[in-house]
Design brief:
five-stranded mixed beta sheet, single chain, globular, 373 residues, Neuraminidase
Length: 373
């Protein structure tokens, strides 16, 4: 029974790294604290559709809904995290399909694996690949060029404006001594952050930890209630989210994950799984695993006003279940599918305003939603 419960849970939140809470950051800064239980809740109908952009889909780029998306000035880069053979598909900002930039494989134009990727504003693409206790960074041009290889088990990474790299390794003890390391553009170790003092057994899994928004870099960790920023070679705690009854209890970290998880799953818990910042608005994506299954709270923080939250579920509001960013107009961006958006338009009205042509395949759509007063 325990194994079945664990398996079911991992399917639901497989992108979580099932491990501990964030320790104090290396350099404290002023921090905002928000209680999910006490802030104002607004109905999902306050989010109205502003734009819908279909992504051209063929038999060569069929994707699911668990997508990791990066934007450059002109292009959209997408990795299907659940694909058997991962690749990075590229679209023009208009939605036109431009082809696959790279895929996993053993050929000269492939990389051994795709764990994570980074895109610069001018479309430079870098990929994190690894096997065993080593990872490598590749720059993707016509063919992949290995920049360096290091002895570190990383689950995500980002490239800094100065050309250096941050890699996240999590609590994979005893293989990871520091949860974040900084490397030079040649792979030399230049800094370490967040020492790993977790000694229990765990099941390492991948997640997205770095969220770059303009000149700001946000960092989140699974089962942490803090959002960090990286600046001036230091980590700063900038936000704490109080999950109330769903906060991770201290006893969870005092035993191996296989022992403490069943009790935590029965209790329920909350997690920060995404953070996006616009000019005047920040979105913190919070997932709640409770007695009613998996729900999300979209925490919307107006930089000039008070925060509000929108409660969503995959069953009732599937078009809002996968946020992917905030655009230049402070509209919230979500990825969904034509069939799902068609359902929303029938219920909310506007099917005549937004064209959703039928194609051979049910295709993904990038939608912009405006928060109305």
């Amino acid at each position: 029974m325990l194994l079945l419960a664990m398996r079911k849970f991992f399917i639901v939140i497989s992108y979580f790294l099932l491990i501990a809470c964030t320790k104090e950051s290396d350099d404290k800064a002023s921090m905002t604290s928000i209680s999910l239980e006490n802030i104002k809740e607004v109905r999902h109908t306050k989010l109205t559709l502003a734009e819908a952009k279909g992504l051209e889909t063929t038999s060569e780029n069929l994707m699911g809904l668990k997508l990791r998306i990066r934007f450059s000035n002109q292009k959209i880069f997408i990795m299907d995290e659940e694909a058997k053979q991962k690749s990075i598909q590229v679209f023009h900002q208009s939605g036109k399909y431009l082809g696959a930039a790279i895929e996993e494989g053993e050929g000269p134009d492939q990389v051994p694996s795709i764990i994570d990727f980074h895109v610069s504003e001018d479309d430079e693409l870098f990929v994190l690949s690894g096997a065993g206790d080593k990872v490598a960074i590749y720059q993707i041009d016509e063919n992949p060029i290995q920049k360096f290889e290091v002895n570190y088990i990383a689950t995500s990474f980002t490239k800094l404006p100065n050309g250096k790299y941050l890699l996240y390794g999590g609590y994979n003890s005893p293989f990871v001594q520091n949860r974040i390391i900084k490397l030079s553009n040649k792979g030399n170790l230049e800094g370490t952050y967040l020492p790993n003092d977790y000694s229990g057994k765990l099941l390492p899994m991948s997640e997205r930890n770095f969220y770059k928004q303009g000149n700001e870099l946000f960092i989140i960790e699974s089962f942490s209630d803090h959002i960090l920023t990286y600046e001036h070679d230091s980590l700063h705690q900038v936000m704490k989210i109080d999950f109330g009854a769903y906060a991770i209890p201290k006893w969870f970290w005092k035993s191996d994950i296989m022992e403490s998880f069943p009790k935590l799953n029965e209790k329920g818990f909350g997690n920060i799984i995404g953070v996006y910042r616009g000019h005047n608005l920040t979105l913190a994506e919070c997932m709640i695993q409770g007695t009613n299954g998996v729900e999300k709270e979209l925490l919307l923080i107006d930089h000039k006003g008070s925060p509000v939250k929108v409660s969503i579920t995959d069953a009732k509001t599937p078009w809002l279940f996968h946020p992917v960013g905030i655009d230049d107009k402070d509209n919230l961006l979500f990825i969904t599918y034509r069939s799902i958006l068609e359902q929303y338009l029938k219920e909310a009205g506007g099917s005549e305003t937004f064209s959703l042509p039928k194609k051979a395949f049910d295709y993904p759509i990038l939608i912009s939603m405006t928060l109305t007063s």
